[in-house]
Sequence to fold (418 residues):
Amino acid sequence: MKRKQLYPRERYLSRMRGFVDETEIIKVLSGVRRCGKSSLLLLLADELRDKGVEETNIVFLNLDKRPYRGIKTPDQLDALIASKLPNNEDTVYLFLDEIQNVDGFEGVVNAYREEGNISLFLTGSNSYLLSGELATKLTGRYVLFEIETLTFPEYLDMKHFLGLVALEPHEEFQNYLREGGFPYAVHLPSKEEKDLYLENLTREIFEKDIYARAKIRDRALFENVSRFIINNFGATVSIDKLCAALKRDGKTPSKRTVYRYLELLQSAKIIARCPRFDLKSKRSLSGEEKYYLSDLGFYFARNVDHRINYGPVLENVVYAFGKASGLSMSVGKIGKAEVDFIARKGTDYAYLQVAMTIYGGEEDNRGIPMLENREYRPLEAIRDNYPKIVLTLDTLLQRRGGIRHENLVDWMLNGGAI
Fold:
């Protein structure tokens, strides 16, 4: 059977190539189910073949598919790998896809790493992959690649790569907001097929990566927690407020239970917690958090109403784009005001405000739109000289006090410079 075209996500491939021949370092790809981890491994395997590596020295085992779905124990995994290894002294490239399906895989993986001539690649769909022995025994011996769903530039580029019809970028961006960035959905021709795929994928992730792994006594309560946090992504949430909201719905959960349920959603890579940072005291804040979705498709898959609330949706896009670009993203607090994001890469910082527009609505006594003031004033209160950027969907751009105003779509397509 001819394999479908695989879109080369150079953002990740370029980071991984330098480790391909390293036999002391395990390469770990982690990310939500169906975000494209397996395709990246297949592309790396193709590059090895192009370099002249013999087929027998490329061992690819997808433990989520036939005939390997029944491999569940360390002994079974060990026997399977041993049966596939070639009888030569050359480097073997061993790809283990969805390794978390095997409980206790860590000892087997470490044993093969110690062979000295095996370059190991692992993928997993939840954070259990880096719990237990892999994190403690292999400290300094693995490198983690966090794989995200498609950013908007990747979504657009993938359409061109596949020869699909793509609208002008600013128009196509509206489709991206509703569809999200799961790569397979891009292949599907109609909105109905995309919606059905996302609904089934969401159900699969909940069943395989949460219910099958965690003992949840009150599934109805867990569904309420997940529904609340998914429907309120981008909003400030405290455990106390969440418990109070659930109590109004007739539930009386403990804080410990709610916190555990949020951790399960994070472990399955459905949501990500965005930390808060006080710009005056220069310290992290706890108690009230923001959660963003790993993909907007989760929201639309679980809601009949597909109208876009641009505030949190655009924030989610920027947060996911920043993470995929290797930026550390946090929420900034300065007095009573809030900066949507502090983006950091190494020693470089930037402050980002995100809004649909800064124009229209009521004006102050100087004739300046109140929307504009709302986005600029938190940035103006920051006294350092790091870049400050207002990102909107506006095409008419301005400058105010050295603060950059950029069109969000163009900013992402131009690389998202900070």
